[in-house]
Design a protein that fits this description.
It is built from one helix and ten strands, in the order E-E-E-E-E-E-E-E-E-E-H. By secondary structure, it is mainly beta. The strands form three sheets. It has a four-stranded antiparallel β-sheet with strand order 2-7-6-5, with no helix packed on it. Strands 3-4-9-8 form a four-stranded antiparallel β-sheet, with no helix packed on it. The longest helix is centred in the C-terminal third of the chain and has 11 residues.
């Protein structure tokens, strides 16, 4: 026999992990646009890799630097010199993507490989490891209330 009361709607609950990056990741994407797309990979406890799709840019057109606690990736295309007028561009003329680095992580190295910008971020050994926090969980109802309050 069904345990639900006849005629009563089924109650479905689910929860969502926040933030959208893995809960244990020390790298947080800051708002600022959708380009370029990226992945964050955990290679080791103390080493993460950010891979950004930057096809069409050269290494000379990319700047990667730390600014306070942020990792800043900036791209700016040089003139696509031609004899004609450019009607439609294949790539964005410029972009800036920012990531917040937590728990003593710093820029280690970066390189361009086949249209991908590979950025390694490593923990500074002089900074102690913070205690791991459990992922924050919330219900769909809480998300709806937060969205309504923000509107």
């Amino acid at each position: 026999m069904n345990s639900l009361h006849a005629g009563a709607p089924a109650r479905r609950e689910f929860s969502v992990d926040l933030p959208l990056v893995p809960p244990q990741s020390p790298i947080i994407d800051l708002p600022g646009g959708l380009y370029p797309p990226y992945n964050i990979e955990r290679l080791d406890r103390d080493l993460y890799r950010i891979v950004l799709g930057v096809a069409g840019y050269t290494a000379d057109e990319i700047e990667v630097r730390e600014e306070n606690a942020d990792l800043v990736v900036r791209g700016e295309t040089r003139s696509l010199a031609s004899n004609g007028e450019t009607i439609r561009r294949l790539i964005e003329p410029s972009f800036e993507r920012r990531f917040r680095l937590l728990d003593g992580f710093r820029l280690d190295e970066w390189a361009m490989r086949n249209g991908l910008l590979v950025v390694d971020v490593a923990r500074d050994p002089a900074v102690p490891v913070a205690a791991a926090l459990p992922p924050r969980r919330t219900s769909a109802a809480e998300l709806a209330m937060a969205a309504a309050a923000a509107a």
